[in-house]
Every structure is written in structure tokens, then in C-alpha cells.
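Data availability (excerpt). The following record was deposited with the supplementary files.
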Amino acid sequence: MSGAAIVMMVVAMLVIWGGLALAVVNLVRRSPKIPMSAEVHRDL
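Predicted structure:
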């Protein structure tokens, strides 16, 4: 592989993995908070 091909491969990997990481961070930050108490009452 040429140097240009390796650089393009690294850039593409950074874009894909960086986007995945940002998506996970965004999901974790904006997820609704679940009460941590032992008793969660739900009306069925």
C-alpha cells in the first residue's frame, strides 16, 4: 500500500470510530435518568 492509501485509511477509520464515539456520548448524556431506588411502582 502506498503512503497516500494508508493516510486515507487512517482518516476514514478516525471519522467512523469518532462518529461512533460521539453518538455513544450523546446517547449517554441525553438519556432519561432512571430512578435508582429499589421500589419502582408502575401501574399496569
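Summary of structural features: The helical segments are 3-30.
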